[in-house]
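Thread: sanity check for a docking pose with zinc ion

Original post by kr_44:
Hi all, I'm comparing my docking run against an independent structure prediction. Below are the sequence and the ligand SMILES. Could someone generate the full complex and paste the structure tokens? I mainly care about where the ligand ends up relative to the chain.
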Amino acid sequence: MISVVFSVLFVSFLLLTLVFQFWLASRHIRHILRNRAAVPAQFAEKISLASHQKAADYTIAKTKMGIVMQMVNASVLIGFTLFGGLQWLSVALVKLTGPGMLYQISLLIAFTLISGIIEFPFSYYSQFVLEERFGFNKMTLGLFFKDMLTNTLVSAALGLPLIWVILSLMEKAGSMWWLYAWVFFIGFQLLVMLIFPIVIAPLYNKFWPLDNEEVRERIENLSKRVSFALKGIFVMDGSKRSGHGNAYFSGFGGAKRIVFYDTLLERLAPNEIEAVLAHELGHFKLKHIVKRMVVIFALSLVFLAILGFLKDQVWFYTGLGVDPMLLARNDAMALILFMLSLPVFTFVFSPLSSITSRKHEFEADAFAAKHTNASDLVTALVKMYDDNSSTLTPDPLHSAFYDSHPSASVRIKHLLAAQ
Ligand SMILES: [Zn+2]
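Reply from moderator J.T.:
Ran it for you. Here is the predicted complex with zinc ion included:
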């Protein structure tokens, strides 16, 4: 009985989410089309009509692809669960491997592989059709497959030990396994963050120290002014994959580094680079990164505790189309079902994360305005929005729900007011 109620809830939440996503996407597209004919007055002098319209068309194309992906993902989700895909897979695997740890790890690997195969046409289409059409794709087919292979090896090297430990804890650590799993998970995350810039990122890109003297001097002065112990300023060959530009901050402790995409450095003047960096330092100085980590760790504790409860409930499995095995462990299956069903029930909360993120963006902008020049950040932002073909006229509700960054016009208004 509970199992049926759970199935009904699951399908209802999934359908509601889909309808809502579809509605937001169609609002977004209509809003962009309505504003396509003219560049918004605020940007009229800085952005050409042609690039405004390119941004509109690019955003609409991406939004349409998003709708298709959401529908495919929902069908795959139903196929895995209520239509018996996972049930079939687990029965087939347990026959091959026997009921031990090998069965559990094979189930997770098979599930990941199948999901990856379903996703493949979308990443191919996104890179070689959509991005290509708008002139952003710089990737060769060879690099695309090399990246896929690297992704697989990195996920295996990091993921297999992680799931082995978690599955062992689920099996042997008693009813409080989720607490130990959480402690392990945090240590694992911190380790990955520590080794990411040194071990993982170089598998994908080349990094070299920033060699532009003027920029370097400005950055070093800025770091001193805001008393930030910068350990390295690097440039990354982002241009080998995409025309999009960005800057990011990575590592912690003794390995703090700022990374600029070469595409961004080419486009921005030294004073603009300084303003962008001040924004990134703002995130660090205002403890946004630490705050975000604390929230993620707290949430993972809550979710693991919920999983600790769910994995012993028969209705959790049967409600999602799986008969729990009597002779084999069901822990891997519980992990998969939890990963699949969690987003369906938490989608309604996703604006909370975007609202916080936008609040942090405003704060980092204000920090940059205080320590550098607000108008430099404004011109840098306009160039970045323009180069990335980010629309200047998103639907306000769509933006409020999804966007991690405030829309260009709102952001620039705030910055100009701070001057
Ligand atoms: Zn930011």
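The pocket of zinc ion is lined by residues 279, 283, 361, 364 (CB under 6 Å). Hope that helps with the comparison, let us know if your pose agrees.
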